[in-house]
């Protein structure tokens, strides 16, 4: 029996982590409320959401998500119009674009956020709103559109991080690649954190966003055309 590749092991780990996460939050849904409450004040609401610096940082991260997608799209178009000398990167752009389309755009925005019905923290009764709190893996009717499960920007920063990792892992090692990887992790961590501290998403929304988008990429890397690419 052939040894499992790093991508296969990573996919298995993501599936297991998702199952454990589902069981955890279904049994202890109050953890979401407890964690969000750390950033909530009865008199001020989610007060960090009112700070200009926090909103400015969020805008910067959102623009980086779009910029990374456009760079990947530009790379893909370039390789289709002109023969590239780096076949691995040709495939990287394809996987990056499919990750963005299938993850943040299709699964997150079109399917989950539009139909799951989970209310955002700031709209729930526990935090001054009128909607009922519901666990992450339970379909609800407390939100009509653009709902909490899962985080759209969380999915976006995950796709950004994955794109950078794909480029770095499938290019020659260098100091610049290490800096780019570190910066991408920092952007992803900040983007995920902001959605929680601003009261726009629960902790589970962001964790699920990371796992779902990562599993999509790892599933793509199991296709014959992309098996030679490295992510982990």
From TrEMBL:
The keyword Transmembrane applies. The keyword Hydrolase does not apply. Keywords: Membrane, Transmembrane, Transmembrane helix. Residues 101-227 form the Phosphatidic acid phosphatase type 2/haloperoxidase domain. It comes from the Bacteria. Pfam families: PAP2. Signal peptide: none annotated. The chain crosses the membrane at residues 15-40, 60-81, 93-112, 179-197, 203-223. This is Membrane-associated enzyme, PAP2 (Acid phosphatase) superfamily. It comes from Shimia haliotis.
């Amino acid at each position: 029996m052939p040894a499992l590749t790093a991508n296969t092991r990573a996919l298995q780990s993501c599936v297991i982590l998702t199952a454990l996460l589902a069981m955890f939050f279904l049994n202890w849904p109050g953890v979401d409320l407890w964690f969000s409450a750390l950033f909530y004040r009865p008199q001020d609401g989610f007060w960090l959401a009112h700070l200009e610096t926090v909103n400015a940082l969020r805008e910067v991260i959102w623009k980086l998500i779009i910029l990374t997608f456009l760079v990947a799209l530009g790379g893909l178009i370039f390789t289709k119009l002109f023969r590239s000398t780096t076949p691995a990167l040709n495939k990287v752009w394809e996987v990056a674009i499919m990750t963005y389309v299938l993850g943040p755009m299709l699964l997150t925005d079109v399917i989950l956020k539009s139909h799951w019905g989970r209310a955002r923290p700031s709209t729930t009764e526990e935090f001054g709103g009128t909607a009922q709190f519901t666990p992450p893996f339970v379909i609800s009717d407390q939100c009509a559109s653009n709902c909490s499960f899962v985080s759209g920007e969380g999915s976006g920063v995950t796709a950004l991080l994955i794109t950078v990792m794909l480029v770095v892992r499938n290019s020659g090692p260098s100091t610049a690649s290490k800096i780019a990887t570190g910066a991408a992790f920092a952007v992803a961590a900040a983007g995920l954190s902001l959605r929680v501290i601003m009261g726009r998403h629960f902790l589970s929304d962001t964790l699920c966003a990371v796992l779902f988008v990562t599993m999509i990429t790892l599933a793509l890397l199991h296709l014959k055309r992309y098996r030679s690419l490295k992510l982990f």
